[in-house]
Write a structure and sequence with these properties.
The protein is an all-alpha fold and 161 residues long. The chain contains eight helices and no strands. It is globular. The two termini are 36 Å apart. 18% of the residues are buried. The model has no long low-confidence stretch (mean pLDDT 83).
Length: 161
């Protein structure tokens, strides 16, 4: 890892850990879209069931989307306060890029399956989701900033006794 590229204090948070960039958050939100719909449906009590059936006609697609989004939600929760978690989570954080790539690959497989069920009919929503997933996967593969985020050393919070 070339640390000369990231000498600016803007790349670090107040604890000295690498700060996630905007594309990390956008990738996490893209993968967590099923969680977002699920929470919105839970908050809108009476219309929640109708909202879920409108966006996810098949319950299986919702459950698979929730499963694929869980790693992204967990990594986004870890990113904010990585210095507070036990050292065990550092190993999980180091694999974060590959966890996100696996989740994006699963999402791509789910989207291609959805296209096969629709007999490859063109819809703008499906095309945009597929394009975004491919673009985010390529970004995760090639980005030096994402590599730096998951490989940078983590400073721990010291406990005062």
């Amino acid at each position: 890892m070339n640390t000369l590229l990231y000498q600016s204090p803007d790349y670090y948070d107040k604890h000295g850990n690498a700060k996630p960039n905007l594309m990390f958050w956008l990738t996490g939100l893209f993968l967590a879209r099923s969680w977002i719909v699920f929470v919105i449906a839970g908050v809108s009590r009476e219309q929640g069931k109708d909202l879920l059936s409108l966006i996810y006609p098949s319950h299986d697609a919702l459950y698979v989307g929730l499963a694929l989004g869980f790693p992204a939600v967990a990594l986004m929760l870890m990113a904010g306060s990585l210095h507070r978690f036990p050292a065990f989570f550092q190993r999980i954080w180091r694999l974060g890029k590959y966890i996100l790539l696996a989740a994006l690959s699963g999402d791509l497989i789910l989207q291609v399956n959805h296209l096969m069920v629709q007999r490859w009919e063109f819809h703008w929503s499906g095309a945009l989701l597929l394009l975004m997933a491919i673009w985010l996967a390529l970004y995760l593969l090639r980005s030096r900033r994402i590599r730096f985020l998951f490989e940078a050393p983590i400073t721990r919070e010291e406990k005062n006794e």
